[in-house]
Amino acid sequence: MARTRKTDKPLFVATLLLVGTSVVMVYSASAVVAMDRFHRPNLFLTKQALWAALGLAVLAIASRVDYRLYKNDRVVWGVLGLVGLMLAAVLFSSPVNGTRRWFGLGGLGIQPSELAKIACILFTAVTLERRMHRINELRYSLVPIALITGGLMLLILLQPDFGTAMSLLAIVLVMVFAAGLDYRYLVGTVLLLLPAVAVILVAAPYRVRRLTAFMDPWKDPLGSGFHIIQSLIAVGTGGVQGKGLMAGVQKLFYLPEPHTDFIYAVIAEELGLIGASAVLICFLVITWRGLRVAIRAEDSFGSFVALGLTTMIGVQSFVNISMVLSLLPTKGIPLPLVSNGGSSLLISLLAMGMLLNISQHETSEA
Fold first, then answer.
1. How far apart are CA 224 and CA 216, in angstroms?
2. Which stretch, 10-19, 179-188, 208-217, 339-348, has highest mean pLDDT?
3. How far is CA 147 from CA 82, 103, 154, 172, in A?
4. Percent of the chain having pLDDT more than 90?
């Protein structure tokens, strides 16, 4: 039997803390870069603050929309169709840094691959709820999920955006495994995908350089290993208390895009171990409460959606922080809710709003 309760406060507070950290640290990390490139030190701050305000409004709305409305086939297929068209159309947009991932809209960039994660989570959750009783009959239960996920991944890879495609795959694998898929099928799927992943990695010279730099950044400290080394210097020199807000050095043209992919390194340098740990704790709280919501959801659809949304935030934050600490090769995956970027922040806050709504419904037995 289900009952309605108040919104999950720890989840909400952790989200607000990360958004507040985002606005402050994006300004600290980007002011010098923005002044040098655009002669406007507040440029990225203004954009991030606007996206944060819009995102919090989206969170407030999403937290009040009954998540069961997303179970409607028209909603799911409508979102999938829109995302598919956007992913196809963006391939014909003007390239930015050699990739085609964004639509320009009034000076703001819209990245459809972020919305693709939400669309795929909803479709996977609907399919699993209806077919999980025969989850190990692959043709019946998993082929539809594989086709939709594979199609979205292909469009994302063509941009190219290997990191987002792999994140999407990880989310879906976690969801189908939680539905009861025999682990042998999961292991088999991973083994089958490994050759394809290897081919994709070696096909692009810049990915090969990232892998070799990850293995030994000091082999080419002024070339492919430069970014990793500078990130580790930022983290190491921050100490326990940090150098102080705005006092970081590595953001001064040493770290690449310090306000996006490497913002956690700036946090570690300026706020030290204390600040970096506080950010990490916020992500751990979101993961803990998200999994709790998934376990206590009143139906399997809500449970799968909550698991997918939690995995989305958890995987991205784990990969980004691991990249900054040189535990994984460098990859253009932003730190959710913190890194500069309107699409990432907006979709992350939409996900948190949906998760907060699911938290308002739980089984009385939980």
1. 10
2. 10-19
3. 17, 26, 10, 12
4. 56
Mean pLDDT of the chain: 89
pTM: 0.92
* Residues found in the chain: 366
Q: Can you say whether the dihedral through the CA atoms of 344, 6, 363, 3 is positive or negative?
A: negative
| CA–CA gap between residue 126 and residue 308 (Å, rounded) | 12
Q: Is there a contact between 297 and 70 (Cβ–Cβ < 8 Å)?
A: no
Q: Is the pLDDT of residue 46 over 50?
A: yes
Predicted local confidence at residue 1, as pLDDT? 43
Q: Give Cα separations from 62 to 52, 113, 354, 360 (angstroms).
A: 15, 20, 5, 12
* Full 3-state SS string of the chain: CEEECCCCHHHHHHHHHHHHHHHHHHHHHHHHHHHHHHCCCCHHHHHHHHHHHHHHHHHHHHCCCCHHHHHCHHHHHHHHHHHHHHHHHHCCCCCECCECCCEEECCEEECHHHHHHHHHHHHHHHHHHHHHHHCCCHHHHCHHHHHHHHHHHHHHHCCCCHHHHHHHHHHHHHHHHHCCCCHHHHHHHHHHHHHHHHHHHHHCHHHHHHHHHHHCHHHCCCCCCHHHHHHHHHHHHCCCCCCCCCCCCCCCCCCCCCCCCCHHHHHHHHHHHHHHHHHHHHHHHHHHHHHHHHHHCCCHHHHHHHHHHHHHHHHHHHHHHHHHCCCCCCCCCCCCCCCCCHHHHHHHHHHHHHHHHHHCEEECCC
Q: What is the pLDDT of residue 109?
A: 67
Evaluate if residue 195 carries a pLDDT over 90. Answer: no
Residue 65 contacts residue 357 (beta carbons within 8 Å): yes
| CB-based contact 73:105 (threshold 8 Å) | no
Query: For the chain, how big is the Rg over CA atoms in Å?
Result: 20
- Return the pLDDT at 204: 73
